[in-house]
């Protein structure tokens, strides 16, 4: 029979709640997934959660059957305590906090240079996934991949693409040495119009901070820098929008 | 000499604060812009605010000179009270709450069918602006164009594109009668790959609700429905991302 926890003051629940903060995640070497879709994606990817906390209505889910040893039933009150959404679905998984290491330098890469907004970061990963880009690299100053808001916006795409944290400057040099063109992005009409590039099997695209764009020091290291011609009077595009427009062009 | 208001309890400030809510906006027939960039865009567009509330540091701004009659100085405390951001810039403008009426049916249109998230709605307007699309139509169920989060995400693009509220079903018929193709969007591989369309001078693109997509009743009324091929394992794209990918393709 599955264990049942009714109170948010239970020690295990206190420990699970800590896994929604950066400090707690480091200490516990784990993070908390919130919601059925994300838990399902994690299980479908062949990962084994350390623990699954679920309210009664999830107990009969077929996908959970192989994980009865990890399953603990919780009350709706506990679910509300664990979630940072207003209407939690009532299922959580404690996942090992692991990032991929850099893969062989082949294929398509999206490099994030200081993207601060968690929603943007998550949407960028989800968009890379949809475009078929295999690896997303989180550079310095980018929101943490285990930030709950990043996790929510990724919608499970972290289980489909490789997520890596790395210094971008040496990586750009390595990619180029491996024969992969690295495209920066800038708000500069003297940069190259992205539409002039043909779709390509291998490339790395770098996008920069919401307010300041890419670091100057990186802009000079890229193979080429691209811009998106703006026809109206908007001054710029949201960074995830800009990345999407270029990625879907290059992967067509 | 400019009037000075130090207290959030001042009656004019209480009235201004109400202009950040839907009910208050309807009663006052006005809304509140928050932040220098938005105020500057409004003034640059030739609009005259009813009132400008500004902290001391803005009083010498050149762009405000023609508006001294509308200018009231406020304390940082009042600025904090009026803003729904944590670190307000300290300048606000009370603007007449006006929407455009439907323009002559020519050019490019983006139609929003029940887009609920204010950030998505604002980003869609900003993206339409950048793509050179002239008119964005807010259909039923779409977040209000004067919602403070929508205003923030639009980043002033509401002063560059025409924003209209209208019933989408009759509008789609009118657009088609005027010879404009109306493209729906759906997550359906039997719909047409957007990449098969050539860029075009005139079109209307309809995007739908984040969870449910476009209304069935509208999908059957469009000229064609488009889809974006997904290469990875993401189940869908964010609605603003999807709109951007198609708009930048069609307006190339």
UniProtKB/TrEMBL annotation, chains A, B:
A GO CC term assigned to this protein in UniProt: cytoplasm
A Gene Ontology biological process term: methylation
UniProt-listed Gene3D superfamilies: 3.30.1330.30, 3.40.1280.10
Superkingdom in the source lineage: Bacteria
Keywords annotated in UniProt: Methyltransferase, Transferase
Presence of keyword Manganese: no
Annotated Pfam families: MRM3-like_sub_bind, SpoU_methylase
Domain RNA 2-O ribose methyltransferase substrate binding: from-to ranges: 32-101
UniProt xrefs under InterPro entries: Alpha/beta_knot_MTases (IPR029028), MRM3-like_sub_bind (IPR053888), Ribosomal_eL30-like_sf (IPR029064), rRNA_Methyltransferase (IPR051259), SpoU_MeTrfase (IPR001537), SpoU_subst-bd (IPR013123), tRNA_m1G_MTases_N (IPR029026)
GO MF annotation terms: RNA binding; RNA methyltransferase activity
Annotated family: Belongs to the class IV-like SAM-binding methyltransferase superfamily. RNA methyltransferase TrmH family.
Protein known as: RNA methyltransferase, TrmH family
Organism: Lacticaseibacillus nasuensis JCM 17158
